[in-house]
């Protein structure tokens, strides 16, 4: 049948460009999804190399390998690369690949903007990484770029800010595209409450992105004018207020951490039902819980700044508001457990990573609640306890979910099964060492070791050594991940369309590998296709 | 195939979906712009007026 996609301008059948042009000019959601995922994988290793510099220096007290200035550049760049280069693009890549397939759309709503969203990223990161080679070095004031410190560095700050603006524009365009796709391109019968949870969580995430990326852009624009154009928004000497920056930054920053976890919730909500061979327990409550978390994420930002001095009433408000987030988060965790209850479970690699997520993310959630207690926060703030907290939620949370998603959908993307045995080794290797890496950091923080320092008091030596060993083992283990993906892309056991016995949803109705163009004719969706209304139980 | 929402055939529906998508995108870009302005614009205003 002739092409009836909204993306018809890019589909001149038989005229597909090849080689580099194919990727440069692609408007196809699957190719762009692949680009995002490959980019994210590269950034994961760039950021990982920086983390290993940090862990190598911290293996023993004293200054051994790098000078303190460079150490500070490493902590700053590690965070920026991982957050904006690895985690966020990975989720956008997954959304590109899967959202159209899951809602029965032929492509994203705005395919050319999609191309642009991606191709901005390599430029942004070239700018950011180039600062490492500039006379004044990369930014070294922490990823939060707090003034006045961030304004006391070199001129490379201008490049960093431009890079952040570019990443912001890319994220905003990506988010707008996802919303436009979900609101306008669903197949007939795919009502909102029939959408898979990954689509729901991404819809809500995209709204968060739209609300907070311009705030970050505003904050760094003001930094730029303070540093280069003589304003004093954040300069006390000129009548400005450095604490104002912290409020604006965290008004972006806290929703940002949920931007990095809501799609993860969606992924886990796809995988656990598949491998429990049951429908998702509490589908609607999952949707409402996600929306509640998104709403609450806007009114908790000051829990990052309890120690700057706030009115008591404000501290109480932000403390309680933060703790309330535990309620919808708890709903989700109980729903996942209830989904598994009496299910016919099997433990393929995606399920292992999803289960690892449920257990280890919860540890990070609990340390988060400890941090939210104002008097306790006075003790923990800016210590390694915070580092332990956010690595549990981000590495064993966000990144585990991304790995789970890659194993889950890889057969759909490549048409081949990955090596299950190696996948399981990858999971267990990672899970052992990630805990060796991050668990001791809780103790270091409670014992008083500050974060972002290249040297420490001798009583912290043992736990730092253990953590560094864990870091190197975890890091090198990720090469196995690359090998498994590479092997799977090259061939192997042929995957069926269904791939997983218990899998439900439109993406499993198209062949594996998914052809370049799918759902040119929209499928008709009814309850039998809807993910949460299956009759498998 | 008839779209259950718009009661139109797929072919009639295409331009609609496309217009819908563009309209959604424009509204959202407008929101982004307004948020940016409330943060930077207001700060600039405060700065120059005192
Ligand atoms: C139960 C939910 C959570 C609570 C109660 C919570 C609470 C907190 C608190 C109070 C802090 C500030 C610590 C300090 O600097 O003194 C913090 C820091 C942080 N949290 Fe969470 N958190 C939660 C979930 C998450 C999630 C889901 C993520 C990301 C996926 C996350 C990422 C972070 C990051 C990155 C920081 C450190 C930011 C920085 O200073 O560089 N948190 N959290
Ligand atoms: Cu927060």
Descriptive report:
The complex is a heterodimer of chains A (537) and B (50). Chain A has 537 residues and is mainly α. Chain A is 64% helix and 0% strand. The longest helix of chain A is centred in the first third of the chain and has 36 residues, at 68-103. Residues 1-12 and 533-537 of chain A have low confidence and may be disordered. In chain B, 78% of the residues lie in helices and 0% in strands. Chain B is rod-shaped and about 55 Å long. The N and C termini of chain B lie far apart (63 Å). The chains are: A mainly alpha (537), B mainly alpha (50). The A-B interface holds A 4, 6, 109-110, 113, 172, 175-177, 179-181, 183-185, 188-189, 210-211, 213-215, 217-219, 221-222, 231-233, 248, 521-522, 524 and B 1-5, 10-11, 14, 17-18, 20-22, 24-25, 28-29, 31-33, 35-36, 39-40, 43, 47. The structure holds protoporphyrin IX containing FE and copper (II) ion. Protoporphyrin IX containing FE binds next to helix 11, helix 12, helix 13 and helix 14 of chain A. The site of protoporphyrin IX containing FE has 25 residues of chain A, from helix 11, helix 12, helix 13 and helix 14.
């Amino acid at each position: 049948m002739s092409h009836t996609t909204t993306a018809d301008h890019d589909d001149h059948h038989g005229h597909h460009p090849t080689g580099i042009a194919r990727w440069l000019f692609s408007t196809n959601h699957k190719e762009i999804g692949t680009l995002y995922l490959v980019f994210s994988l590269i950034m994961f290793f760039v950021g990982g190399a920086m983390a290993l510099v940090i862990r190598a220096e911290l293996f023993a007290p004293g200054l051994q390998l790098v000078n303190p200035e460079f150490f500070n550049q490493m902590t700053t760049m590690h965070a920026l690369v991982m957050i904006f280069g690895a985690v966020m693009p990975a989720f956008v890549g997954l959304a590109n690949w899967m959202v159209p397939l899951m809602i029965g759309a032929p492509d994203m709503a705005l395919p050319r903007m999609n191309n642009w969203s991606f191709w901005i990223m390599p430029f942004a990161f070239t700018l950011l990484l180039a600062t490492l080679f500039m006379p004044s070095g990369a930014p070294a004031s922490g990823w939060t770029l707090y003034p006045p410190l961030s304004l006391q560095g070199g001129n490379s700050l201008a490049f960093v800010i431009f890079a952040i603006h570019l990443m912001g524009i890319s994220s905003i365009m990506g988010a707008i595209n996802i919303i436009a796709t979900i609101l306008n391109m669903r197949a007939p019968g795919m009502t909102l409450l029939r959408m898979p949870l990954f689509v729901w969580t991404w819809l809500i995430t995209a709204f968060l992105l739209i609300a907070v990326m311009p705030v970050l852009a505003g904050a760094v624009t003001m930094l730029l004018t303070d540093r280069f154009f003589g304003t004093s928004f954040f300069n006390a000497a000129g009548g400005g207020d450095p604490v104002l920056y912290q409020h604006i930054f965290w008004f972006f920053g806290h929703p940002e951490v949920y931007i990095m976890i809501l799609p993860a919730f969606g992924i886990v909500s796809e995988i656990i039902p598949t491998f429990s061979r049951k429908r998702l327990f509490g589908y609607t409550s999952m949707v409402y819980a996600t929306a509640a978390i998104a709403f609450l994420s806007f009114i908790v930002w000051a829990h990052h700044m309890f120690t700057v001095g706030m009115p008591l009433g404000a501290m109480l408000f932000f403390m309680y508001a933060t703790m309330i987030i535990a309620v919808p988060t708890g709903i989700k965790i109980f729903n996942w457990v209830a989904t598994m209850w009496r299910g016919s479970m099997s433990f393929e690699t995606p399920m292992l990573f999803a289960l690892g997520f449920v257990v280890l993310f919860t540890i990070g959630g609990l340390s988060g609640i400890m941090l939210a207690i104002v008097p306790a926060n006075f003790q923990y703030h800016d210590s390694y306890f915070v580092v332990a907290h956010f690595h549990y939620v981000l590495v064993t949370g966000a990144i585990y979910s991304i790995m789970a998603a890659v194993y889950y959908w890889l057969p759909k993307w490549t048409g081949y099964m990955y090596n299950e045995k190696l996948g399981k080794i990858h999971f267990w290797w990672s899970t052992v060492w990630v805990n060796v890496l991050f668990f001791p950091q809780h103790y270091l923080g409670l014992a008083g070791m500050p974060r972002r320092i290249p040297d420490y008091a001798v009583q912290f030596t043992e736990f730092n050594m253990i953590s560094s060993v864990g870091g190197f083992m975890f890091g090198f283990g990720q090469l196995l991940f690359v090998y498994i993906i590479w092997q799977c892309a090259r061939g192997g056991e042929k995957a069926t369309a269904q791939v997983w016995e218990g899998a439900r949803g439109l993406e499993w109705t198209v062949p594996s590998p998914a052809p370049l163009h799918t759902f040119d004719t929209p499928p008709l969706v009814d309850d039998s296709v809807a993910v949460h209304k299956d009759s498998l139980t | 195939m008839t779209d259950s929402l718009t009661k139109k055939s797929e072919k009639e529906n295409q331009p609609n979906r496309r217009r819908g998508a563009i309209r959604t995108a424009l509204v959202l870009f407008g929101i982004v712009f307004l948020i940016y302005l409330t943060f930077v614009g207001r700060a600039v205003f405060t700065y120059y007026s005192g």
